[in-house]
Each structure stands twice: as C-alpha cells, then as structure tokens.
Design goal:
By secondary structure, the chain is of the alpha/beta class. It is built from 23 helices and ten strands. The protein has two domains: 307 residues, no CATH class; 223 residues, Rossmann fold. The N and C termini lie far apart (79 Å).
Length: 618
Amino acid sequence: MKKYIPIVNHSLKYNPSLDGIRGLAILLVLLFHIWPEYVPFGYLGVDLFFLLSGYLITQIIYTKLKAKQFSFKEFYRNRIRRIFPAVIIVLITTIIVGYIFLFPSELENLGNHIKSSAYFYQNFRLIGEVGYWDEAAQLKPLLHFWSLSIEEQFYLFWPFIIYLIYKFRLNLISSLFILFIISFTIPYIAEIDKFYHSLARFWELILGGLLYAISIKYNISISKSSKLFSFYPLVFLGLISFPLYLWHYVIISYLHIFGLDVKEYGFAIIFVSIILSYMVYRYIEIYSRRQTSYRFALFLFIILGFIGFTGKYIYKHKGLPNRIHLESNNIFHKQFIREPAQNNLGLSLVTKVLNNKPTNNYIKATSDDLSKTFIIVMGDSHAHTSYPGLAQNFKKRGYDTLLLSNSACPPYIDGAMGRDIDEIKECKDKIDSIYNFIDNSKNIEKIIFTSRAVSYMYGVGFGIVDGADKKPYSGAKFKEYFDNRDNWNQKKQFLDGIELLFKKFNSNKNRFYFLLENPELGFSPKNCIIRPLNIFPSDCKLTLNSYLERAGEYRSYIYKLSKKYKNITLLDPKNLYCDNKYCYAIRNNRMMYADDDHHSVDGSKLQADYFMDYIFDK
C-alpha cells in the first residue's frame, strides 16, 4: 500500500480510521453532486468534513500545547503546505480551461470566483449571488470552495481561542460547550445567510472540537481496528479526499457548461477525479508536506496571492473579450450580459407615488414625470428581461414605461412565495408595494404582466440546467405552507393566484395584457455557440412536444381563464419561438435567450416587435 499511496508524516500518530471517515464524507459528496436524486442526503458529507476538521485541528493544537511544543508560526506554515498546493493546481487548471473555452461573460464571472477562492472568502461572494437571477449553481466551477473558505477562516482564529483556554487553565469541555451554544444560536438571532455565512457554520467545527474534548476526558477514541472505517477503499479515498473534493466539482461544472449530461458521464467523472486527485496527492501534496522551510510556505502563499490577482485582472477586463480564438462569437456572447436591475428614474418615480423608497428588485423607468402616460411592465425576472424591448417600442409610440417587478416573487394576488416564512413575508410586502403604486397612480394606460410560470406551478425546474430547482409556492395564508407541507397542493395554489389576478384586472380601468411564459430551453443557450476546438455538442433547439408536455396544462388553463375574463388580453409567444416541430434559442440569426429561460437583449427586442401591433391594435 505504502509503495503506491504513501502516508505522509502527521503531527499526531496516524489513525487510518480518520481517513476512512474522510473517505465516507467525500464519497457522499461525490455521489450527491452527480446523482442527487439517488443520494439526496449526500450533502451531509460536507457537515462530516466540518466536524472532522474541528476535531483534528483542536486535537493538534491542544496536544502540542500540553507538550509545550505549540507554535503559531509552525501551525500556519503547516496549514499552508497542507492546503495551498492542491488549491494552486486546481485553480490554475480552472483558469486555463476557462481561458480556452469560456466566453467573456462566463470567464468574467469565473475571474471573480478565482479571486474569492484564492483569498478564501468564496462563501461571502456566493451570499451575494444566491438570487433567482443568477446562473445555476452547476455553472460555477468554484462554487464548492465555499466550504474550504469557511474552514480557512476558522483556522485563523481557532488556535488563539484554544491557546487562551489552555493558558488561563479553563475547562476545555465547558469552554467549548459555551462557544458551541453561542455559535449555534447566532444564525437564529442574526440576519445572516444561514447556508454560506461563516457565523452560521462555525458551530459545526466547534462541535468537532467539543467532541475531541469529550473524547480525551472520557478516554473515547475512534478504534483503529474498526472494520468499516479501516476498509482500504475508504482509507484510500480519505487520503486523497482533499484534492478529490477540489477536482470533482470543477469537472462536473465544466461538463454542465459544455452542455453534457453529468449523470450520463458520472462514472467517468469519478474515475478522472480519482486519477487527478491521486496524482496531486502522490507527486505534489506528499512533497509539499515534507518541506519544513518557512520560505517554501511563503513561496506557496505568494503564488496563491498571484492567482487571486489574476482572477481580479480577468474580472476587471470583462473576461478578456479580445481572445483571438473567440472573435467569431463576439455578437452572440454579448447577449449574455445582464441589464442593470434598477435605474434612478424608476426609483424616483415610485418613491414620488409611495412616499418611501421601494424594496422591489427590479425598478426601471424611461421618465419620472408623473404627468406623463405610462405603461407598466410587472412580474418577476422575466418582466425585467422583457422590459428593454418593450420600453424602446413604447417610447416610439409616445408612451413611457415603468418596470416594477420582483425576483422569484411574481405579484399574483395572494401569491407570496419563498423558502421560509421570512422570505414569504418579504415577498408579500414587495407585492403589496406594486399594487399600492397601481392603485395610487392616475396616468397608467396599460399593464403588461409576465413571469416564469411552470416552475412555480410544479415546483421544479426543467432540463439539465435547473431540473432540481425546487421553489415552494405559498398563498395568502403563507404560514399554512410550513404547517402543512405534506398536504400542500402547490399547483392549485398557483393557478388560483392567476385567476385572482385575472379577476382583479378584468374590471380594472387599465387595459391588462397577460404575456405567457416563453419556452424553457432546459439547456444553456451558450451551448448554441460552437466553442473553441469544436469538441462539444451544439444543439440550439428543443422539440415542440417536450415544450407542450411541460407547459401544456399551464397554457390550457390560461386560455380557459381568458374565455371567462374577456377583458384580459393574452399575448402568446409560442409562434415566435417555435415552428411545428421545434422551439429555438436562435431565430433570424439572433440569440433569443440569456440563459435557459430569460430573454437576451435581442430576444427582448424581437418579442416586443412581435407583439407591438397586437398590443396597440386591440
């Protein structure tokens, strides 16, 4: 065994069972990221890593303190030579692959993540990117660095805490128990992200430290003879678990970006990830961990700092758009650039009417003059991406336009939604704000409503991009959802909300237009563009049957409502996107989509052109 997978020198006596636990943890994570429907509990592998890290790091510090051998300088040197080599190799590889294959908007986003991953604050970067508008998690190759960032942040202060506990002769168990209770409570009393924020996760690492304290107090240990955790394949996976954690998600994410089905290539992903991880462990990590020089640790520190600077450079230079091998795609890739969510005219206009600053996510206007005649575009992020084309066309016809919509919170009547009660309450306030504006405005000529629909109706996304994207829908009595999840009829709740919307505006003085959802692609439109080397599939359409199978019930219901509420005008985009066989992401050589379901700038214009005469002739 040692000939092919040597064991590095450890600060403590080597216990193979601990590597067996690591192996189990990485196996859970690996299977969860490839086949989440079969291993839905696999995310617990990260929690197991946190516990084990807290246990071991506390053991290392406390054992050396008792032996009068602890050194802060040595501690941080060891952390650098343990962690930085694999991180450096994976980040450099990620940059090279991104430079060759990613389009500017993709590489720009990756550059931002390179920086935050290299400087170990990726978890805080992701807190600002968890909104509905952001690209799917699978399209972020360094998403998984969030957990590594939390661990590194923990390592910065934990040695000092253990040192103070030891120096002042405090009871280790009692001290860590108090810290655990405080840390565990913080997420429930502070307004922080409960998944990515460090303060919402430190309790897991502290609990690991507490378990160590209990184990030495009562002489409890993980048995070296444990048949399960000493099982060689698990020990092997545990030994390479760190590079394996880093490699596997980068590979998975790039396959998603290139339009390949990860589930289909699952075993190949596992095989390649293990080979790469073994190579990093055997020929880089082993060498690094044998180096005792502080200069070597400083050298690694400088390299990682330079990688972070490279990521910042890529981001600041907009994803390096002038790469020669991508010049033929310059027209298309510009369609993936996002429009700003708000402008000053929109904020000013809404504030004048409501007498307070609005909280809606998307607020834009072509004027803030209340005496002018406006057309309102309302809904969710689909309204946001429909706005540019509509506003441009309305201006030509003498109307100003106001966008007033929310992210993942469409203003259906009694239709607030969210992942928890707080989010639902926030959504309800945003919806009320929109209707308060409409009820208190005099110069509204027309209202156009558009939002994503089928994913709200069924609670799941579509295709390989967001097929597991579950978004619970709730109604006016939003607490009922969380009290009766098992009996909650999401489809009925959603459809009832649409009928209440039709009923409200059927008798409204404003002309109301309901724009049906455009087809969900189920794949990234970036896959429509041939990437360098032309080694990845390029298919820019889905079958009409698959679209109608997914959206048929929703479409039938909307048409049924339109016969009942005759003052509601339907705008159906199906024929703009689809012929009698397929629905397309590109029409007339123009990219229609910015992602799998939102319009691009050109798509917004084409949609507006398609409906303009119909809107003003009716």
